[in-house]
Amino acid sequence: xxxxxxxxxxxxxxxxxxxxxxxxxxxxxxxxxxxxxxxxxxxxxxxxxxxxxxxxxxxxxxxxxxxxxxxxxxxxxxxxxxxxxxxxxxxxxxxxxxxxxxxxxxxxxxxxxxxxxxxxxxxxxxxxxxxxxxxxxxx
Amino acid sequence: xxxxxxxxxxxxxxxxxxxxxxxxxxxxxxxxxxxxxxxxxxxxxxxxxxxxxxxxxxxxxxxxxxxxxxxxxxxxxxxxxxxxxxxxxxxxxxxxxxxxxxxxxxxxxxxxxxxxxxxxxxxxxxxxxxxxxxxxxxxxxxxxxxxxxxxxxxxxxxxxxxxxxxxxxxxxxxxxxxxxxxxxxxxxxxxxxxxxxxxxxxxxxxxxxxxxxxxxxxxxxxxxxxxxxxxxxxxxxxxxxxxxxxxxxxxxxxxxxxxxxxxxxxxxxxxxxxxxxxxxxxxxxxxxxxxxxxxxxxxxxxxxxxxxxxxxxxxxxxxxxxxxxxxxxxxxxxxxxxxxxxxxxxxxxxxxxxxxxxxxxxxxxxxxxxxxxxxxxxxxxxxxxxxxxxxxxxxxxxxxxxxxxxxxxxxxxxxxxxxxxxxxxxxxxxxxxxxxxxxxxxxxxxxxxxxxxxxxxxxxxxxxxxxxxxxxxxxxxxxxxxxxxxxxxxxxxxxxxxxxxxxxxx
Lengths: 139, 506
Known about the structure:
The complex is a heterodimer of chains A (139) and B (506). By secondary structure, chain A is α+β, with helices and mostly antiparallel strands.
């Protein structure tokens, strides 16, 4: 039941919107589910070996040098930049209340994206939006 | 403490209650007793050993105890090679599995495993109230109240070590007709039959391996592709003991291994019609004689979810903190294989090794110390001389069984204090060290894997509010006590120690 419920949940997320039901079931299988308690760190600034996280339920703070910069909610993802560049995260991600995520380790991100081009395209769109926001912010 | 019938721990109020008498519950009860922590230990079973009193189905473990290692059974170094004994505090309680195995395999048979656990219970005079079934749970103020077959137990803290061994079936139409792990007929009745196994994890491959000599054809199917432990360099994936069906599949075709979701199982006049859809969206039909659901196991948590314990995944594991407490209901802790619900940092995607005895036996020992502290005990933190710090940490990386079996989860921690000197903090969860201000001015060492290289030690130094991570070199002989390791570790610790201490002592 848990797998199907998760596959239905992620059907509503932009990142996985173009996948068929068996493909979504596979996503749920390839990613692992992880819960975090209030205040628990999900990603740690400067620590190696992290992954790509998708928020299923709850909220998390993006915290840089102890200052909260933004809030992540269901459907948002994080950790992709450190996975793509092979570098440690530049921010802490901290659970605000109970937080439920799907996690894919950095070593699996490349093969996952290559075998799911629609997710790769959606991820690129997400990154493009981030670049646009940053550009606006800088100008 | 004993009742008239000779059983310990009569109903009543205790500072702590432990439920379960499998290896997880036994290890915790033992470690609590050694620390003098008052508790009650209850079990619905009538003898120790938990699921190993009946499973694995094909009667042999997939975890080994290697008899000849260059180290005596009973030594701390031996524990790296002994995955099945419980972790005793003194030599007479350690490495007991080696003494009950007949030497024909380094994987103990199930009866040998059962005997090893019983022997540990006898040697350590482990006190458990057997035949006492936990039936329901409620909260009453700060207390947890357990209704049992013997009456009510109350405690502010309860540890559940009840295993993850209840077979579970997904809601696939028609699957109710399929046999589950634990419901197989005598193996000879599977001779010359076509068998469809749903599930491609160890339990599915255990059944496939067991039926290989008999079945005409075996089909193994589930949505996700199977990983092998030899490829992941971790315990994630199907274990080497069960890979023979893969070889049959690629060389002979007597086994079919499919990535597909199962859509329907229908009974026919003389068997089953199984409809699947591959991940490439292609429908397939199989006419077979038997369907076996090896679709995993669930956690028998009874009413704990109603009380507020958050669970996740197909196994219904409770989400836990790094000290194995429910993230959503304080005072509820877990031990044993349920500790899989606390995955740790998942560095490089590799979770804690808490699903197996060799991993969770150390969790239980760390949890016992944590619970002792919560009950007001001050634990011993021995002083270490400055010139012992580097040898101690490197020796731990080379031989420390906690670090070996709980990679990037358990760490050996040493703290540096301007006033109190250098203290050995013992073995602690790495996340506790990373996220706890108390350890500012401390160092931790772990062993880690990244899934494709040999394992290597990692040193974490907390200094001035920041954590600095240093990877030490891997070594083909797994010797982490070389001059190079000493030099690199001294460099990582230079905030705390004089660089001259990197030189080997003469």
